[in-house]
Amino acid sequence: MNNREYTIALAGNPNTGKSTLFNVLTGLRQHTGNWPGKTVVHAEGFFTYKDEQYRIIDLPGTYSLYSNSVDEEVARDFIIFAKPDVTLVVLDATALERNLNLALQVLEMTDRVIVCLNLMDEAKKKGIVIDIAKLSKKLGVPVVPLAARNKEGIEELLETIVRMVHGEIKTKPIVVSYSRAIEEKITKLLPLVKEIVGEEYPARWVALRLLDGDTSLLHALQHQPHHLLKGVPNYACHCSAKSI
Ligand SMILES: Nc1nc2c(ncn2[C@@H]2O[C@H](COP(=O)(O)OP(=O)(O)O)[C@@H](O)[C@H]2O)c(=O)[nH]1
Ligand SMILES: [Mg+2]
User: Fold this and answer.
1) Mean pLDDT (the chain, rounded)
2) Pfam families given for it (predicted)?
3) Among 126, 128, 149, 150, which is best to mutate for testing ligand 1, by the most ligand atoms less than 8 A from CB?
4) 233 C-alpha to center of ligand 2: Å?
């Protein structure tokens, strides 16, 4: 068994089945507490698959990641600063259009994304047909259909995770283009942002947030939340972890 533990983040709108998937993957190997200094629930679990160890974090359910709320900041900071090996974006297959909004935002932040199309059983009942291959091609990342409550699709998801953490999947996230005025500003800002953040953070995303006047991101970048940085020992033990 190799000693490396891979980190997986679960992101998605509320009610898309994130916690259901989290429970299926981790069983009883999980605990909850609060994020350091926040009243937001922190749920962390562990599982082993094919002799490799994984840590999975159930991020707060949000509709966006624009720092409108503490939940959004927690989810955003984890993706940006903890740099999970894989971020699973869980979407409700019966409300794809609304859910894709969050997926696009995550794809601006990281290319290590697997889109989980959950509630496929409900979608089928409603006669909704989704061309998975086409969606995956369009988004530029793997898309795995799931019915987490019935444990359907879990094996394919685990296999996709394995291939992603081993660098066997080359993703090419869709690049959302904005109005000409915004794109011109991004072009001007990008070299400056790259100079400051280097390869450490997704420059186009940082530029967009700056254009948006996101002062909370600026603050986070200046005072990187140390408990989220890779290589820092498991911080969850600092919170009131309890087994559930
Ligand atoms: N039909 C169906 N219901 C599901 C599925 N996954 C989750 N649910 C249900 O959807 C509701 C919300 O699930 P939950 O895991 O709490 O969503 P979260 O808010 O994203 O964590 C619960 O009633 C689940 O039982 C699924 O694949 N199919
Ligand atoms: Mg939940």
Assistant:
1) 90
2) FeoB_Cyto, FeoB_N
3) 149
4) 25
Query: Is residue 209 situated within a structural domain?
Result: no
Q: Are 242 and 32 in contact (CB under 8 A)?
A: yes
d(CA 129, CA 150): 19
Segment 13-39 shows an average pLDDT of 94
**pLDDT for the residue 129:** 97
- Exposed, middle or buried: residue 11 (CB in 10 Å: 0-12, 13-18, 19+)? buried
pLDDT tens track for 129-176: 999 999 999 999 999 999 999 999 999 999 999 999 999 999 999 999
What total of structural domains would you count in the chain? 1
- Does any ligand 1 atom lie closer than 6 A to the CB of residue 152? no
- CA-CA distance, 68 to 209, in Å (whole number)? 12
Tell me the one-letter amino acid at 213. Answer: G
